[in-house]
Give the backbone structure.
Amino acid sequence: MIRGVLRSLVAVGLIVLNLVAAEQHGEVTFGGLPVPGATVTATQGDKKITAVTDQQGVYSFPDLTDGMWTIQVEMLGFSAVKDDITVGPETKPSTWELKMLPLDQIHAEAQPKGPPPTPPPPAQPSPTQSAPKAADQQKPEPTPSVSETEPARDELAQRANDGFLINGSQNNGASSPFSLVPAFGNNRNGGRSLYNGNLGVYLDNSVLDASPFSLTGQNTPKPAYNHLTGVASFGGPLRIPHLLKNGPNFFVGYQWTRNRSDNIGSALMPTVAQREGDVSPTVTIPKNLISPQAQALLNFYPLPNSTGGGAYNYQIPLVSVTHQDSLNSRWNQSIDRKNQVFGNFAFQDTRQDNPNVFGFLDTTDTFGLTTSANWFHRFGQGFFGTFGYQFSRLSTRVTPYFENRQNVSGEAGITGNDQNPLDWGPPTLSFSSGVQGLSDSEQSLSRNETNAVSAAFYWSHGRHNFQFGGDFKRQEFNLLGQQNGHGTFTFTGADSGSDFGDFLLGVPEAAAVAFGNADKYFRGSLYDAFFTDDWRINSALTLNAGMRWEYGSPLTELYGRLVNLDVAPGFSTEVPVVASDPVGTLTGQHYSDSLIRPDKHGFEPRISIAWRPFPASSLVIRAGYGIYYDTSVYQTIATQMAQQFPLSKSLSVQNSAASPLTMADGFNATPTGTLNTFGIDPNFRPGYAQIWQLSVQRDLPGSLQMTATYLGTKGTHGTQEFLPNTYPVGALNPCLACLSGYAYMTSNGNSTRESGQIQLRRRLHSGFTASLQYTFAKAIDDDAALGGLGASAGTPNTLTPGAGAASSARNVLIAQNWLDLSAERSLSSFDQRHLLSAQIQYTTGMGLAGGTLLNGWKGALFKGWTSLTTISAGSGLPLTPSYLEPVPGTAFFTLRPNYTGASVYNAPPGLSLNPAAYAAPLPGQWGDAGRDSITGPVQFTLNTSVARTFRLTDRLTSDLRIDSTNPINHVTYPSWNTTFGNAQFGLPMTANPMRSLTTRFIVRF
């Protein structure tokens, strides 16, 4: 038993250490032993990806998109396991422990008596993320697992034997239909060491990889680089002679990464003639009129090094360096028959260089740690609980190239922005024509901390399995940094007829800046409670029903340094209201300390069923409905509220006769509107999604299984943002006394998404398994949170004031016409109409059933290999056409062009979009081109891998795995440039990665 637990802990640690940032790995075990041949399905909306565990019980999803995914693990003869995980750049692997159903109870109506076995310590989260809440691990799901309806006994035995044998495991017990003796997989007889460990290395070298794709066609040399990762782990019982006899079991794993990666940076740089004033065939700027500010900033622009077209004339290789050290440790100790304690400690230290085409090298340092302690107590037969405490801390430091190095703005004669040595650097320059915008990162230091307590209980009573519990988290977000301390100048050519000409003259079309109140200390709390009943009504019907309540408090600032806008009816005027004195002088209303009223109505009913209508049939019908709240919306909102007048200098202004702008003093301009740039409805409500699902599953001849699924989603209270009191370019201001220049956020958005999916899966048989699925979906929204999911790639209508690219601090959709928000309703940015995915796996096996009839050295060379190929092809994602011109009275750029009626995709040679399909908006009118009305490039991915485990001795094994991304070296693009009038309009913004090869080798003992 102890050995089994140790092997499980070691295997879990290996998976934790073996992960790649863009992948999601995991391991499936039973009794501490790996389970090969288990089916693992990842579902997000109508996206469903299937993997099968290898001979080590390991599965891998190489390209899951960021966000919440539902993972379900199925294996015939076992109860299915299902849970939600959050996939992101720092996602850590998961461990899934299966529970076998006794053969004589496969068709029994009641559940087996007695409580389930004591659970092993859970897999540890990334130090940069909070561990899953206990309640999250127990929450009811819209669709129950397949375990509600079990297969016949003979098929069960056949499938189990097939999975264990063909997938490369060793079959040790001839008499058992499942061949599960205590030494399964290793056949270890006699006494052996109780300690296990491994040593391994991952290697990816530039020699094995293809060069990045060149947008200019220029043959840029590929710099040499290495991706090198070393892993080591050790685990077993802690015993100290004469001091500690029966100590806890422990596991310690360490990962050491030193990576150099290359990429190609392409840009449009000003030519020698343009620098001297010859900016276009029709516009020439005399040299004596070139501003000293422009002359100083031009020194940072390199000369073009390519003549391959007018869209890009400069290209260089960019080499980034990543150093990472990670440690994961776990321990568990059984006190007696009723009590067990377990916990973990982990940290991750990452240092990363971020170069850009100007030669500026910014660095990001991240250090995170997490630790937890848990107590498992068995109260009685069928009733037990787990109590836990968790602490996590994450520190992130962004150091710009110019910090404490050079006061670029001050030396150039630019005043009004933040010229603290920590925030030295150039102002951000944005050009409508496509000239590369000058920019550098903003300095920031954040320290986030979470303390959490949890309690979860399980009670098995008759045909009911009750689960209930709750969590409390106290969160701290401590930030030192500015939102837009460098400031932003945007040039459109309004003064001279050329945007670069306006730059040489030093006359921007818009200016924006936000700094002050650098240190911010946000505080918030999260609460949740849940109850669910898993009711096995009979052998053919299971009902899972429950209720969950979640509440995330709006964030407060420790010293009351938050600012909102007290807005008069109709947005006729506004005045700032500060959290330290939260009384609106216009409306007289009293605000809370967060300046947003809390919403404690986050009740989330969830119900699901699984039904086998015909006892002799494999047909299974599942249906479910649930409500899910978004309680994590407040952090970005609080950051914007803290960077406001009168606590900070915030400015968003357009060049005009009343407020003329120059680069010398543009950040000191007096706005014609408000000094604030952001306000939020004090009755803002977090959004929620209603999700309903219906699926039909049936077995087909030839080891095939077909599943048809319908999934619907309805989002309510999605985030909307608009610009009050604005009007089209060329129109008269309808309210001269009304203030403008700020964005206002509400929660009145809505979204819908419906999808249908057909999946055909061939179960593992004779070493071969595969799945093919097709999804048809449509998503529509007029919001930017539940449905919009942030900015579309290449969509500048999500800009910060005056910015030339989307900002992480303001990555929300801002409506073009504040009086017609319904005009923003369109396809969602993630709407992918068609998606076809395939996954093919073949294992050469270990015996006759595996199809390997070779002996001798040929058999030794050929047997035991597992190859996996994943292919995905889908239609393009929606993109929004935009027109870079500020909305009058602001420095926000949310305009769209007019659609001329010409075909968008009947493009001239070399382009993917037709510029003739769009034109500048008519004076006094908003552009009529729809949001997300362009379909982006077709999406295609192909990845392959081969792996084998070599058994060196009774105690020593080694794993070899080779992964290839894009092995056919096929060029694909994530998106196109959709800014009308831009030199890169209709061209790809970047290319997806080309072929790469990674070799992994691990020795286990």
Remarks:
- The first helix runs from residue 2 to 17.
